[in-house]
Amino acid sequence: MVRVKTPISKQQRQEQILAEVRANAAVRIADLADRFGTSTETIRRDLDLLGRQGLLNRTHGGGTPPLAFEADIRDRHRLMSRERWRIAQAAAALVEPGEAIMIDAGSTTLHLAIALADLNRPMVAVTNGLAIADALGKCAQIRVIVCPGELNAPQSGLVGPETWQFLKRLNANRAFIGASGLTTEGPTEAESSMAWVKRAMIERARTTSLLIDHGKFNVDMLEVVCPLSALHDVFTDQPPDTALVEALSGAATGLTVVA
């Protein structure tokens, strides 16, 4: 976060806090206090008020977006771009020439699509993400198959019964998915329509990798996409806390933390 240098009103501060919450999976009191140059108690009161108004979910150390809220993919793509690029590069290295893969619409998976195009390897890629299809299409060696469906414009993704039915006809070596959050129960998602696409990809792929940055650890959203045991591995940029590490280990889900 960039620290605010000029004094702002209480209303302006709360509006900027909401912008941070909507752009990120979670915000912490200490970080916000440092950004706005105020006390942690002031930030705590701000978060309590915004929570009572239903504008965020109040957590012990900060706040998270409402359960059914997901920021626009264009906003999310700009966040933690370095961390997500490292995650994407590590995941892309898994793909062997000639494999068939599935990639769901998302910000971190968009980084993956760019990394895969850079590798210039022959493969078949199935996606419901328009931005992802465009990124993959820049590599002549990648055959890109775009799912049909109804456009979810903020997520640049195609969703709905047609998308789900189309995916059910296909097979893949690997699926790569993102998520709004990751808890000991499994990856979580703000939008049901997006969650159903992920489930279809998981079902039709031999292995599934979750790509997620550390800001989404222990973030609850509206739906649990699948149990941790449905994931072959998780790629992230920082080690999760002990409870999450133990849950992943207990589910026999691999964990790769990129440097």
TrEMBL record:
Domain of life: Bacteria
GO molecular function: DNA binding; DNA-binding transcription factor activity
UniProt cross-references to SUPFAM superfamilies, sorted A to Z: NagB/RpiA/CoA transferase-like (SSF100950), Winged helix' DNA-binding domain (SSF46785)
ATP-binding in keyword set: no
InterPro entries membership: Carb_Metab_HTH_regulators (IPR050313), DeoR-like_C (IPR014036), DeoR_HTH (IPR001034), NagB/RpiA_transferase-like (IPR037171), Tscrpt_reg_HTH_DeoR_CS (IPR018356), WH-like_DNA-bd_sf (IPR036388), WH_DNA-bd_sf (IPR036390)
Keyword Cell membrane: no
Keywords of this entry: DNA-binding, Transcription, Transcription regulation
Ranges of residues in domain HTH deoR-type: 10-65
TM ranges: none
Pfam families, per the entry: DeoRC, HTH_DeoR
PANTHER family: AGA OPERON TRANSCRIPTIONAL REPRESSOR-RELATED, HTH-TYPE TRANSCRIPTIONAL REGULATOR SRLR-RELATED
Name of protein: DeoR/GlpR transcriptional regulator
Species of provenance: Phenylobacterium glaciei
Organismal lineage: Bacteria, Pseudomonadati, Pseudomonadota, Alphaproteobacteria, Caulobacterales
